[in-house]
Structure formats: C-alpha cells, structure tokens
Design a protein that fits this description.
By secondary structure, this protein is an alpha/beta fold. The chain folds into 2 domains: about 160 residues, Leucine Aminopeptidase, subunit E, domain 1, CATH 3.40.220.10; about 325 residues, 3-Layer(aba) Sandwich (Aminopeptidase), CATH 3.40.630.10. It contains 15 helices and 20 strands. The strands form 4 sheets. The protein has an 8-stranded mixed beta sheet with strand order 8-9-11-10-14-18-15-16, with helices on both faces. A hairpin with a 3-residue loop joins β2 and β3. About 55% of the residues are buried. The structure holds ligand BES, manganese (II) ion and zinc ion.
C-alpha cells in the first residue's frame, strides 16, 4: 500500500472514492463546493441529510461532472470541537468505508478540516499513521487468513504549495506506522512463539536490512560474566534462555553521544513463584510490549534514516515458576554491585531493566528512556489513555511530554523522590524489589532510579496503554512507538537549524 500526495483539482481526480468534508448545518467544505458547482448542486441538495458529526459518512454514487467514481461526504464536526481525537475518528470512518467497499484507491480531500491543527506536517503525518493502523489485521496464527488488502494507493489532496512538506509528512508517517505495526504484531504473538529468542531473531533481521544498524545478542553466560544476576534471576524458572538484545544505530557522527532506548521484554509473565491469579493471565503475553515499542521505533528510525546515534537495549526473559525459579526472599547481586531482596517474583520487570540500565552506561548516553509494562498501579493512576512518565531530569521529562503531545501519544509525569525511596528499604539487602501497596508506579521507578544516576533518564510505564483488553479490539496498540519516534526526531532538530515543520532531510 502506497501513500501519495495529489495536488490536482478535486473535480479532476480519477479515483474510486473522493472523500470530502462537511460540517454541521450542511456546511460544505471548499472542495465539496467545487464538486457541487460542477455537479449542478448535487451535494448541496443532499447536504441537509447529513448532520456533519465527526466520522459520520454519506456514500454517493454517480456524482455528475467529476472524474471520481464515488464521493464520501465525511462529517468533520463543528470547527471549535475539532481535535486530534475527532481527526482520528474521521480517518477511521474513511478507512471503514474504503475497507467495506474493498476499494483499490481513494483520496482524502478534506481541506485540512479534519482537525484544527495548523501544522500541516503533523496533520498529514497523523492521517498517514492512523489510516495505516486501520489496515493492520492480526492473522498470523489463524489458519484462515484475512482477505488480501485491496487498497493499493491512499492519497491526501493538498495545494501545490504544500506538496513538498506533505511528502515529508507521509514519508515519516508511514515509517512510524511501520514501527507501530511491528510493535503490534510482536505484542499480539503468543508467548510460545514470541520468546526471548524470537525477539532476538527479529532484531537480527532488522540489522540485515540496514547498514547503519548492528544487532548483538548477549547470551546467559555472557550476562553472567558481566554480573547481571538480577536479569538472569527472572528467567531462572524458564526453559527459554534470557537474552540481552543490543541494537546500535549509527546515523550520526562518530563522536555523537547516542540516545538509548531500553525495553522490558518479558515474553510471558506468570508472576513466577509469586504466581498471578488465573483471570486474564493470557494478557501477560503483552508484557514484552516495551521491548516491542523499542524494536518498532528502531525500525521506524532506520526507515527515516535520521542522522543521529541511537542504541536500543532489550532485556528479555520469561517469568515462570519451577523448582529452579527464584523464590521470595532470594537475594541477587545486580551488575551495578547493589544487592536486591526479591520479595515478590512478580515484580520482575525492574529486575531485568536494572541490569540493562547499568549496561547502558558503557555507551555514555546523551539520554536514556526505558519503556515497560511495569505496574498494574499505573492503570489505577492513569487508566488506559496516558502513559506514566518518571524521570531524574526535568529537561528530558519536559521534552518527552512534548513529544507525546506532538505525536498524540501522550504521557503524564509522576514524581520520584527520597520519601518514596524509603519504601524500598530491606533488612537483608541494599534494596527490596517491592515498595508496598502505596504508589506502586512511583516505587517501581524509584527502584530503577538507583541504577540511572550516571545519566539523564526517563521511564515510561505503558502498562495501561500497550494493549486493549476488550472483545474484538483486544490486541496490542503499538504505543508508544509514535512518542519514541518523535523523541528521536526532536534530537535531530536539536543539532540542526529548524526547518519548516519537519526537522530532517530525506
Ligand atoms: N507486568 C506486570 C504489570 C502489569 C500487570 C501490567 C497488569 C499490566 C497489567 C508486572 O510485572 C507486575 O506484575 N507488577 C506487579 C508489581 C507488584 C508485585 C509490586 C503489579 O503491578 O502488581
Ligand atoms: Mn510481574
Ligand atoms: Zn511483568
């Protein structure tokens, strides 16, 4: 499927479906008025039958005087109500029509009325990402495959003067969308297929496709050599070997300090000896979604070919109970030398992340961002819409919040601090791996903060946003690939003069 930018007059567009905007009270968009004029009032006659609500569609055939085969009149809502959420509704509704009719091409000609976003680059990038997300269907482990996608080309119509910027926009948008798709696919795969070994193979396959990317996989013996006994303790009960996957992308200058992304890759979290209850335990196959979003963002990065250095580190293990499994009360020594009393084997994410974070030190990072489905408490605090953000650096935190806003993939900051750190005191080790029932997201981040003192670090808790639990929508969301990509795009802006809208060359 190809995204394209068209600049022709709407009446001249040869397409199976022309999607035009209509606001409430029968208010036709400029493009719709052009079509109306050519068609002798066909649209204005019918406009009263449309209430113009965002995402409401009316399919019209044989509109006279134009080259398009069909027209969809797409409600965009009242001007004052248009946001990125209504924009997404519009795109989803348009894609719904395109899929239902099995069209091979279509053009959105919405005159930028799908939102009030004045940044054309961002508006079209979002359209691209969200349209693409509607085309993803999981069928990998079904014997009956989904129908082959009929859609070959999806275009956005813009004015000639905006065409160049719009081209950048669909290039970045589809790169980000591809990363999102990869993250969703990895998340959706079951735990018996998507193992730590599988994740490492995916990372190696990405390396093979990009000259600037080098993937190295550290095996258990190598991790033991480095003293990563916290990470290793998590996979102790599993037959699946744990992996530390390191992906180094060199798009920048030799000496440019890299931005590091770290992902929690627990390919299944039973809780270990601190076994989880049975209800919804299947959803713990999604406990590698942090890793999936980091791998997805690396894929987008290679496609955008950004001129920066980035390192991704995925800490991957399967958390199982067995006679070999780590037990509550066991004490392990981390790579940093700090000892940890594992009071609950279900607080395993921090145990794999802490050694991956210590490993990050060797890259002398400019910034480190870890992404993890870390705490159920984050769902209590922020629900399923906003990721949790915790950081030891205000500048990095603010920039990630802004990146999340820009990408419509939002996060909200929670505090970390001394007063919470005390909850992690242990009588028998340097730190306990749990901090009691209060402020679970914060104490989890406080644990990580003990391993990140040497660099600017932020932690994204995506427990609430990484997947959807409901019925037909059940599945991985690909969040926070867009946020991570925007974070990386912003690092390019940092080093270069501001260009209009998007900050990098293609
Ligand atoms: N992977 C879970 C967190 C989680 C649970 C994410 C449910 C999404 C939905 C994590 O490993 C975990 O089990 N955390 C515990 C920590 C507790 C033992 C301190 C939790 O949140 O209950
Ligand atoms: Mn757990
Ligand atoms: Zn977990």
């Amino acid at each position: 499927m190809q995204f394209e930018i068209f600049t022709d007059a709407v009446t001249d567009l040869e397409t199976e479906c022309l999607i035009l905007a209509i606001a409430p009270e029968g208010k036709l968009s400029p493009s719709a008025l052009e079509v109306d004029a050519k068609s002798g009032g066909y649209l204005s006659d019918i406009a009263a039958d449309h209430n113009g609500k965002a995402g409401e569609t009316l399919l019209l055939h044989k509109v006279p005087g134009i080259k398009a085969k069909r027209v969809v009149l797409m409600g965009v809502g009242k001007q004052e109500d248009r946001t990125d959420r209504t924009q997404r509704k519009v795109i989803v509704a348009g894609m719904g029509q395109i899929k239902a009719l099995k069209l091979s091409n279509a053009v959105f000609a919405l005159d930028h009325m799908e939102s009030n976003d004045e940044d054309l680059y961002r508006q079209i990038r979002h359209n691209t990402e969200w349209a693409s997300a509607e085309l993803y269907q999981y069928d990998t482990t079904k014997s009956k495959k989904a129908d082959e996608l009929a859609l070959e080309s999806l275009a956005f119509r813009v004015d000639e003067a905006d065409a160049e910027l719009a081209e950048y926009s669909i290039a970045d948008g589809s790169a980000i969308a591809n990363g999102v798709t990869t993250a969703r696919e990895l998340g959706n795969l079951p735990g018996n297929i998507c193992t730590p070994t599988y994740l490492s193979e995916i990372a190696i396959a990405l390396d093979a496709e990009c000259d600037k990317l080098t993937t190295t996989v550290l095996e258990e013996d190598e991790m033991a050599e480095l003293g990563m006994f916290s990470l290793l303790s998590v996979g102790e009960g599993s037959i699946q070997p744990s992996k530390l996957i390191v992906m180094e992308y060199k798009g920048g200058e030799e000496g440019d300090k890299p931005h590091v992304l770290v992902g929690k890759g627990i390919t299944f979290d039973t809780g270990g000896i601190s076994l989880k209850p049975g209800a919804k335990m299947d959803e713990m196959k999604f406990d590698m979604c942090g890793a999936a979003s980091v791998i997805g963002a690396m894929e987008s990065l290679t496609e955008m070919a950004l001129p920066i250095n980035v390192v991704a580190i995925v800490a991957s293990a399967e958390n199982m109970p067995s006679s070999k499994a780590t037990k509550p009360g066991d004490i392990v020594t981390t790579m940093s030398g700090q000892t940890v009393e594992i009071l609950n084997t279900d607080a395993e994410g921090r145990l794999v992340l802490c050694d991956a974070l210590t490993y990050a030190e060797r890259f002398e990072p400019a910034t480190v961002v870890d992404v993890a489905t870390l705490t159920g408490a984050c769902i209590v605090a922020l629900g399923h819409h906003t990721a949790g953000l915790l950081s030891n650096n205000d500048e990095l935190a603010d920039s990630l919040l802004a990146a999340g806003d820009f990408a419509a993939d939002r996060a909200w900051r929670l505090p970390i601090g001394e007063e919470y750190q005390e909850q992690l005191d242990s009588n028998f080790a340097d730190i306990a791996n749990i901090g009691g029932p209060a402020a679970g997201t914060i104490t989890a981040a406080c644990f990580l903060a003990r391993f990140t003192e040497k660099f600017a670090w932020a932690h994204l808790d995506i427990a609430g946003v990484a997947w959807n639990s409901n019925g037909k929508a059940k599945g991985s969301t690909g969040r926070c690939v867009p946020l991570l990509c925007q974070h990386l795009l912003n690092q390019v802006d940092e080093g270069e003069e501001e260009q209009e809208g998007c900050g990098h060359d293609h």
